[in-house]
Write a structure and sequence with these properties.
Oligomer: single chain
Structural class: alpha/beta
Radius of gyration: 17 Å
Number of domains: 2
CATH topology of the largest domain: UDP N-Acetylglucosamine Acyltransferase, domain 1
Number of strands: 14
Number of helices: 5
Order of helices and strands: HHHHHEEEEEEEEEEEEEE
Length: about 190
């Protein structure tokens, strides 16, 4: 192993060992077809700058200081932002490309996939004071889509490329267009 990798490996192992959300992190690794082990996590972090941003957010939710250390060791994709307001991020998150992608959600469920140039962000607050989307399980948001405001994106939803979503989306739907329209219910 190269010295530079070894110098990253040891502190990352210590930080990873201290986390409470190891299971969700291993679900991320497994989701892209790798063996869910620390060895493959290190390889994934070393080779995927978009995932580094997600990993740093998972660490930040438990320790902002440790997140700064990880950020220092692994330069993340700077054109990507990833944040959960409530700190709830399910396992199996995958950012495909991730360039120019902003995910600022209230909460993110399991098996969330986001493509490049997507914006998930705040809008006008609702009566509960929530201003960002809640994303349920098995959601895919394709290139150039925008999801904003206090909306709920249901389970098993696909948001098509370029769609603008500012209303709740029920479970098992495909959404396209501007203005958004549901083209398929499963």
């Amino acid at each position: 192993m190269k010295l530079s990798l070894l110098l990253k490996y040891i502190p990352t192992k210590i930080i990873y060992s201290s986390l409470d959300n190891k299971e969700a992190i291993m679900e991320d690794v497994k989701r892209i077809g790798l063996e869910p082990s620390f060895k493959w996590l290190i390889r994934y972090i070393n080779n995927n700058t978009a995932y580094r941003r997600i990993f740093i957010e998972r660490v930040r939710l438990q320790s902002p200081f440790k997140a700064k250390l990880v950020h220092f060791m692994y330069k993340p994709l700077e054109s990507m932002a990833f944040n959960s307001v409530t700190g709830k991020i399910g396992g199996g998150v995958n950012a495909v490309h991730g360039y120019s992608t902003i995910v600022y959600a209230n909460e993110i469920g399991k098996n969330f996939t986001v493509y490049q140039n997507v914006t998930v962000g705040i809008g006008k607050k609702d009566e509960k004071g929530i201003d960002s989307p809640t994303i349920k399980n098995n959601v895919r948001i394709y290139t150039g889509a925008v999801v904003f405001g206090p909306v709920t994106i249901g389970n098993n939803v696909t948001i098509g490329a370029g769609a603008i979503v500012n209303k709740d989306v029920p479970d098992n739907c495909t959404v396209v267009g501007n203005p958004m329209r549901i083209i398929r219910r499963q």
